[in-house]
Amino acid sequence: MLIELNIKDFAIIDSLSVGFGPGLNIFTGETGAGKSIIMDALSLILGDRASNEIIRQGAEEAQVEALFDVSAVRAKGLDSVLSEAGLPPSDELIIKRVVQRAGRNRIYINGSLATLVTLTEVGRRLIDIYGQSEHQSLTRPEEHMELLDSFGSLGAMRSHMADVYREYAAARKEFESLVLDSKNTADKKGFLAYQLKELADADLKAGEEESLRKERERLQNAGKLGSVTEEAERAIYSDSGSITERLGAISKALKELSAVDPALAATAKTIEECLVSLEDAGAFLRDYSSSVEADPEALEAASDRADLIGRLRKKHGCTLEELIAKKDALEAELRGLDNIEFKAGELEARVKALKGKAEEAASHLTEARKTAAAELESLIEGELKTLGMKGVVFEAAVDADAGHDGGARLTEKGADRVSFFIATNKGEGLKPLARIASGGELSRIMLAMKSVMATGRVSTLIFDEIDTGVSGSIAQVVGLKLKEVSRGNQVLCITHLPQVAAFADRHFVVSKKAAGGRTVTNVVEAAGEDRVEEISAMLGGLKVTDTTRKHAAELIEAAIGMSGRKKAPVRRPGAAEGKG
């Protein structure tokens, strides 16, 4: 329930504070006084997009703040929304919107910053606003299914339908893709087989590129390798006066002298060991130089092999290691293509089973909708009769939504098309709601819808000029219906009709005047004689007489009698005031 609304520097409102109560809260006032601005402020609190055009001229920011008692709706998903946003659940909720001219807008929920998404989710659980735009939504057939499903509490069935349909649709898409692929399977298999043969014939080995690089470098330098190693072998071993020959003589001399002076023994041994190593090196170089020779064919083969690997890498755009892995992947893909017919058969059976499951869910949903439609028809006709439409016939038609093949068209919402039809007078044929010409009739239809469907879903209902196009005794009936709705919900209503205003539990008068060279808006709660005076003004216009005052008092007394409640104690003006 909305407890209090504070508005600052919003449109033509400078500063305004209004306290609300349970039951029927009525707003009256001349056209242009600012009633719609209050509704705009509430819409902002509930998640409407903000524009800096709403900021009062001369101010840098606009603020709207609302206090709610949410104890009645915490179990209806509000706590989970708050928890997901990192906000602790509470029986009271303070929502604040700050809109700055510089474009920096902020949202606060219980003092913590929040996102517009969170605010929208919270707002739709607090208040349902009905204005002139809802007249149009009521005439749109695409909205009728949502209204019927909401009335029938079919949310769980809709969720199940959506789940099974998505599973069916995904399997069908996969099957259709597989069938399309199968048409090109032969060509694809041929191409894959060609690629696989090319890689298999190449017989690629990990690290082969580096080995080939080294082999090519060795073969390209065979002449130099042979001449240099042969020359080194001769200098070390074969030539007269070679290093080993000279070192051998030195080793022999030192070995003999070490018998004279043992201090030379260690050095003699070291030289002898070096001599052995040099002799081994010379033998290796002799064998190596004799084995090295130019081999143009081997060089050409190594170059061809390296070029093949290079071409394959460039063709496939990957490394040697990735080419080797690709060969395994191609083999697996070919095996998969070989099994495509088997896979298609399996998938086709799965699609058929899932379609049956979706059709079953859609069938249950259809039956539930038809049951809900019959109940809705009866209730709406009853409500409309109390609203002065005695011969009305209302129909909520649930028909199969046919696809292009003539069969039922399955969607996440089932397989139905829901349309509302009405005959407003006895003997007339049923017509779509969109063809209802009378604004008064459409207003009463919408009020009947709200009476039947909205009660209990949210705690607060707002009706912005619900009485458009009605007058006289029908206006009184509309006021009574609003009163009845307010017994289960807090109701806020803007009206121009005294017959409706007479039913108010709290009556707020909105007015504007010039002050200090600017327009200001006042909201005052009218009670007692002030309320009689306001309804008199609504009845008599500029000239209020004792006769109109008497008529106003009679309207209030009649409203009390029709609503079956005792007369409320007189409130004094000033309980909720503000200026703008």
Written account of the structure:
The protein is of the alpha+beta class and 580 residues long. The protein folds into 2 domains: 2-139 and 436-579, 3-Layer(aba) Sandwich (Rossmann fold); 189-338, no CATH class. The chain is built from 19 helices and 16 strands. The strands form 2 sheets. Strands 7-6-5-4-1-2-16-15-14-3-13-12-8 form a 13-stranded mixed beta sheet. Helix 8 (208-220) runs antiparallel to helix 12. The protein is elongated and about 155 Å long.
Q: State the major sheet.
A: 13 strands, mixed
* Beta-strand content: 15-25%
**DSSP, total strands:** 16
Q: Which range best describes the helical content: under 10%, 10-25%, 25-40%, 40-55%, 55-70% or over 70%?
A: 40-55%
- The CATH level-2 architecture of the largest domain is identified as 3-Layer(aba) Sandwich
Name given to the CATH homologous superfamily of the largest domain: P-loop containing nucleotide triphosphate hydrolases
- Poorly predicted ranges (pLDDT <50, ≥5 residues)? 566-580
Termini separation comes to: 25 Å
Compute the number of structural domains.
2
Overall 3D shape: elongated
